[in-house]
C-alpha cells in the first residue's frame, strides 16, 4: 500500500528516521548502487540493531558486509557484491552463508532491477531479456523458489517471454546531493537503480548533503529523482555517502575502504571495525569527528570535488498571465469586466 | 630502437583495444576492459562510445575508475540515464557492438561463471556475482573476454553468462541474437577464438615469450590449436605510455598494485592526526 507523505517539513535525524520508518523484518532496498551509497542511514540501521531484513542489493562494495556483521540481514536478493581477495580469504558474506545466518538469491543486474521497475509501475510482472533462461541465474533458486522467474506466451507473436515478478520493498534508503525539507530529492551522476528502487518502495528515507530551499527545486525539476509526496523522511547528512563518491561533493575514499577490507578478513577484525566506526559513534557527525581525530581532515580534503558546474537549463518562458497589465484577456480580447458580463449574458452561470 | 618493456596486463590491454572499431558502442566493466576501451578511444577509435550499466554513457575517463558507477573518473559524459535505460533501450535493442568482460571460469564453449566455485550451496568460494554480464554477454554483437587468474574448466560450476551452450547452433536455437556471443579470449599467454562451426574454443595466437605447450597445460581438455598461429604484437611505446598515464594500477596488475599501495595505506593508518 502506498501512503502519501504530505507534511511540509520532514526533516529529522537519521536516528529518528530509522526509528520511525524501518522495522525488524522489513524488506529494504539500498537505492544507490556503488555511487552515493547511503552509509549514514545504513550505519544507523545497524546501530539500532534491526533484525531479519530482506535486502535488495543491486551491487555493493562493503555495505552488505557491514549489514551482515551487524546481524541485520536474513535474506539477500543480489546481483553483485565486490570481493577483494582470492579463495584463501573467507569473506563476510561467505561466513554468514556457511553459518546459515543469511540466504542469497542470485539475480543479474537487469533482472533484479526489472522486479523493482515492475513494482514501481504497479505491474504484477515484466518481461526481461529471455536469454537469462539459459543461465543458472534462472535455474538455481533458493528462497524465491517458484517466484523467481516465470515464462509467458506473448499474445501477439506467440513468443515465449521470460518475466520477473513485480516487487515492492517496504523501505528504500537513498542518498542524494540535495533535497528540500519536504523531500524533493535531487540526484545527479550515476543514476543506476535510484529511481526504480525508490518508486517501488512503500516508504522512502532520503539523506542529502544539503537541504535547499524550494526555489532551487522549482528551477531544476529535471534533477528531482523522487518527488516529495513519496518521501517520508529527509535527513541532512554531509558526507553521508562517505567512503563512496558523489559528484559535486567528494571522490571515493579508497584508503578508508582498504581499512575495512583489511580488517574484515578476520572475524575479530571485522568486529573491531564495526565497534570503531559504527557502534563507537553516535551519528555521522561523530563518525567524521573520529575520522578527523584518527587520520586528520586533510585526507578528506583531498577527496573534495572541484567545481564543474552544469550549464543551467533555462526554465524561462514569456511569463504571460491570463490577464495582461491592462486587465485584458489574451485569448478573448476582453477586459475582466467584459468577460464577467459575457458570462452573465451568454448563460455561463449555472446558479442564476 | 630498443624494444619497449611491457607488463602482462599491458600486452592484453593493447591487443584487446584493437577489437574496438571506430564508431562502436562499447559496454565496459572495470579493470583491464576499461583500460582497453580508453586506449582504443585515444588511438584508433576516437568516435567509439564508452558506456557502463550505471547509466554513464559517453564517458571519457582520464583515470581508471574504481567501479562502473564512478563518474569522478570523467569530466562529464554525453548521456545520463539509468540501468533500465541501458539494458532495455541500448542492450536489448541490439545497439551494443562490443562488450568486454573478465573471466572467472570458462568452458570450451565459452559459458562463463562469475558467481560461485564449487557446489552452489556448499561452495568453495563466492565470486562477485553475475552483475551485468548475462545480458551484455547475451545481447552484444561481440563479446571480448579478458582472463587473468581465470580458469578453463570442463564444466563451469554455475552458468552465470551463457556462451555457446553445448556448441554448434545451440546458442541461436536458444534465441540469442544471430552472430552474438564470445568471439575472443585474451589470456596472459595467448589469445583464443571460437571455431566457426563447432563453436569450440581454440588457441589462435601466442604472446611473445610463451609456448603452445605452456598454454595447453592450463586447459583440462585437448585444446585445439590453429594451424597458422597469429603473431600477437607487443604493445608499442605509445600504447604503454597511454595505459600508464591513464591507469598505472592496471598496468601493474592486481598483485603488484596491492604491494605498491600498501605502504601508503599503512602510512595513513599509522599516522595520527596532525
Q: What do you see in this structure?
A:
The complex is a heterodimer of chains A (352) and B (274). By secondary structure, chain A is an alpha/beta fold. Chain A has two domains: 235 residues, 3-Layer(aba) Sandwich (Glutaconate Coenzyme A-transferase); 36 residues, no CATH class. Chain A is built from 13 helices and twelve strands. With 274 residues, chain B is α/β, with parallel strands linked by helices. In chain B, 28% of the residues lie in helices and 21% in strands. In chain B, strand 14, helix 6 and strand 15 form a beta-alpha-beta unit. In chain B, helix 1 packs across helix 2 and helix 2 crosses helix 7. Chain B starts with 7 loop residues before the first helix and ends with a helix. The mean pLDDT of chain B is 93. At the A-B interface, helix 4, helix 5, helix 6, helix 7 and helix 9 of A face helix 3, strand 9, helix 4 and helix 9 of B.
Structural descriptors:
heterodimer; A: 352 residues; Glutaconate Coenzyme A-transferase; 2 domains; 12 strands; B: 274 residues; 10-stranded mixed β-sheet; 15 strands; 28% helix; globular
What structural class do helix, strand and pairing data of chain A support? alpha/beta
Instruction: Summarize the biggest pleated sheet of chain B.
Output: 10 strands, mixed
CATH architecture of the largest domain in chain A: 3-Layer(aba) Sandwich
The helix count of chain B comes to: 9
Strand content of chain B: 15-25%
**Uncertain segments of chain B:** none
Computed over alpha carbons, the radius of gyration of chain B is: 19 Å
Helix content of chain B: 25-40%
Low-confidence regions of chain A: none
Evaluate the radius of gyration of chain A: 25 Å
Structural shape of chain B: globular
Number of helices of chain A: 13
Q: Span between N and C termini of chain A?
A: 45 Å
- Average pLDDT of chain A, to the nearest integer? 96
Whole-number count of domains of chain A: 2
Q: Termini distance of chain B? A: 49 Å
Helical coverage of chain A, percent range: 25-40%
Largest interface, chains and sizes: A-B, 65 and 59 residues
